[in-house]
From TrEMBL:
Ligand binding (GTP): 199-206, 281-285, 345-348
SMART domains in alphabetical order: AAA, SRP54, SRP54_N
Annotated protein name in UniProt: Signal recognition particle receptor FtsY
Phylogenetic placement of the source organism: Bacteria, Bacillati, Bacillota, Bacilli, Bacillales
Protein source organism: Pontibacillus halophilus JSM 076056 = DSM 19796
MF terms (GO), sorted A to Z: GTP binding; GTPase activity; signal recognition particle binding
Assigned protein family: Belongs to the GTP-binding SRP family. FtsY subfamily.
Gene (name only): ftsY
GO CC annotation: cytoplasm; plasma membrane
């Protein structure tokens, strides 16, 4: 089976089961669905009522100090905007990667049109396009080498076959030798899990925590947030706004206080209330690198002292629009903190989405999630297949018609 065909099958079939498996966009009462989606939608509604039921029990257990009732749970269920309700993962990647698609895929198309034959000039220009999409020099070299071998192996002459080969190799290079599949947050199924979010100012830590809280809540978990960025003006309030939107508690101290103390209190509160996952925000000032790293290790020490095996994940948040800068941040942070996963935000805001391949291939830290927008449903697990689908969506859909 051809690679494009495989992708298409994966995502057209997935559309029917996506909300079942991810339990993300439930409460779906929008009427804009077309006829073909009706049966899938009916199933979604059924499934979501089950999810709600689970959420109800969870909330009743954890918030014993409040009057537990279905009413109060409904109040804390976030209101999704209509456009947030019904969107498959493939659609989200397609929309989120539109800038990169317009930049990268249209250049590949032009290239294919310009050169009919696969030759050295073709590869040279392809190399430029890939570097221009922030794929990263080392990764590009590897990729070109792989492509040249594949062209020989399959005896490809015509450039029109190259789009598919390129997409296939993009996925392969992301997956590497291990092919660990799509990676989620590392959380315990019993007992408290603590996740620390680190990264420089403005990359999207607080926003990601809000989105993550929403995701986890939709999966039926109870969540608490720790306002560990006590440094930046307005940071605590920003996290509180997310707490309210998503309907989870936020533990905070006043501005300027010791972040380790905030996190300590949050861990105690999370234990006392039987919370499943505690997400900890941190400050990201890089003006004083040594101080920041000391502060982070202090916070980390408090967490591991209070909860065995914690932090369960240390998520480094990187801004995709900063390109190679994100790479150097990743190096700085992973030298001093044991980063276990990456969230790459603002992929929707860059035409150079190739950075995700460079990060995975050159840093060897899994990109677990990507930010594809500012809404609370815009955090997705990173799936290289979905990524490539997003890159070549127009072409794939054309093939479908044929
Ligand atoms: N377009 C887009 N904007 C994002 C994304 N993630 C975060 N942002 C925006 O980036 C800005 C900084 O985010 P913030 O969470 O405050 O960063 P922090 O300083 O690391 O906590 C905010 O305006 C967010 O709305 C994303 O995935 N896509
Ligand atoms: Mg912040």
């Amino acid at each position: 089976m051809s690679f494009f065909k495989k992708l298409k099958d994966k995502f057209t079939k997935q559309e029917e089961t996506v909300e079942e498996s991810q339990a993300l966009e439930h409460k779906d009462e929008s009427n804009e669905s077309n006829e073909t989606e009706e049966s899938a939608e009916a199933e979604t509604v059924e499934d979501s009522s089950e999810d709600n039921a689970e959420a109800v029990t969870a909330v009743e257990e954890s918030e014993s100090d409040e009057e537990p009732s279905i009413q109060s749970v409904e109040e804390t269920q976030p209101e999704l905007l209509p456009e947030e309700k019904k969107e498959s993962i493939a659609d989200k990647f397609k929309k989120g990667l539109s800038k990169t698609r317009n930049n990268f895929s249209s250049k590949v198309n032009d290239l294919v049109a310009k050169y009919r034959k696969v030759d050295e000039d073709f590869f040279e220009e392809l190399e430029e396009i890939l570097i221009g999409a922030d794929v990263g020099v080392n990764t590009v070299m590897e990729l070109i080498e792989e492509l040249e071998m594949e062209v020989k192996r399959r005896n490809i002459k015509d450039t029109s076959e190259m789009r598919e080969v390129i997409s296939e190799k993009l996925v392969e290079i992301y997956q590497g030798d291990e092919n660990e599949g799509v990676q989620e947050l590392n959380v315990n199924n019993d007992g408290l899990s603590v996740v620390l979010f680190v990264g420089v100012n403005g990359v999207g830590k607080t926003t990601t925590i809000g989105k993550m809280a929403h995701r986890l809540k939709q999966e039926g978990k109870t969540v608490m947030l720790a306002a560990g960025d006590t440094f930046r003006a307005g940071a605590i309030e920003q996290l509180e706004v997310w707490g309210e939107r998503v309907g989870v508690d936020v533990i905070k101290h006043s501005a300027g206080s010791d972040p380790a103390a905030v996190v300590y209190d949050a861990v105690q509160a999370a234990k006392a209330r039987g919370v499943d996952v505690l997400l900890c925000d941190t400050a990201g000032r890089l003006q004083n690198k040594v101080n920041l790293m000391n502060e982070l290790s202090k916070v980390k020490k408090v967490i591991s002292r209070e909860v065995p095996d914690a932090p369960h994940d240390v998520m480094l948040v990187l801004d995709a629009t900063t390109g190679q800068n994100a790479m150097s941040q990743a190096k700085t942070f992973s030298e001093t903190t044991d980063v276990t996963g990456i969230v790459l935000t603002k992929l929707d805001g860059t035409a150079k989405g190739g950075i995700v391949l460079a990060i995975r291939n050159e840093l060897n830290i899994p990109v677990k999630y990507v930010g594809l927008g500012e809404k609370m449903t815009d955090l997705q697990t990173f799936d290289p297949d979905a990524f490539v689908y997003g890159l070549f969506a127009d072409m794939l859909e054309e093939t479908e018609e044929a």
